[in-house]
Specification:
The chain is mainly β and 221 residues long. The chain is built from three helices and eleven strands, in the order ααββββββαβββββ. The radius of gyration is 17 Å and the shape is globular.
């Protein structure tokens, strides 16, 4: 039972880079149909929703962002538009499935000039690559409430394997296996040059830290 609970928490993370509440969406997977997502994975998401095995994040209380050091200051950005989901089978040995979609144009640094530069062709290139996509592959528990999560991140049309460090916690008093609300925090460090972002190597650090803080609720139709 505890293993099942931990599985649930880990894969809710992958909403982590997700954020729209799906209760108002007539088709839960509509946003992903034009993305590079396997049809079987989409089918699993819809089937899980019907059986109460889908978990979704709460956009208003979740954050998806990044920070990168430069010679002048640390640049911090956040994405305001993101969505995704996870499935969890009742079987304790099930790894579940997860997918996340971020709208790159929703990036905000609270500085108009910097936001424009980061959205430009030299960095995120949001005109030609409007979406950032993450699809899970596997995980490894490192402690009672900590784990390492792996998956494929597609950014600027380039796909690379990434690894998140995960911290999980319960936001309610229900028994673990019956948890309805979860907080998942996850971080990873990317090399921006591996995604084609090679501009200003002297001024801007090549290492970018992604930070996720996700509140998720069990989906109810």
């Amino acid at each position: 039972m505890h293993h099942l609970f931990r599985l649930l928490f880990l894969f809710v993370l992958l909403l982590t880079a997700s954020g729209t509440v799906w209760s108002d969406e007539p088709d839960l997977c509509s946003a992903f149909k034009n993305s590079n997502i396997n049809n079987e994975l989409l089918g699993n998401m819809l089937s899980a929703a019907k059986h109460g095995q889908l978990y979704q994040i709460q956009k208003k209380s979740s954050q998806v962002g990044f920070c990168v050091d430069s010679k002048l200051a640390t640049i911090k950005g956040k994405f305001t538009e993101f969505e995704g989901g996870i499935t969890l089978s009742p079987e304790a040995n099930s790894n579940g499935k997860a997918m996340i979609l971020i709208q790159a144009k929703s990036l905000d640094t609270e500085n108009g000039l910097i936001s424009t530069i980061i959205k430009s062709e030299q960095f995120f290139d949001v005109k030609n690559h409007p979406e950032v996509l993450f699809v899970s592959r596997g995980f490894k528990w490192t402690g009672r409430d900590t784990a390492i999560l792996q998956g494929d991140l597609t950014l600027r049309g380039v796909t690379r394997r990434v690894t998140f460090n995960v911290l999980l916690s319960v936001l309610e008093n229900h028994p673990a296996a019956q948890a309805q609300k979860i907080l998942v925090k996850a971080t990873t460090v990317l090399n921006r040059t591996e995604f084609g972002m090679k501009t200003l190597p002297v001024l801007v650090n090549k290492e970018v830290k992604l930070c996720l803080s996700v509140e998720a609720l069990r989906y109810s139709s």
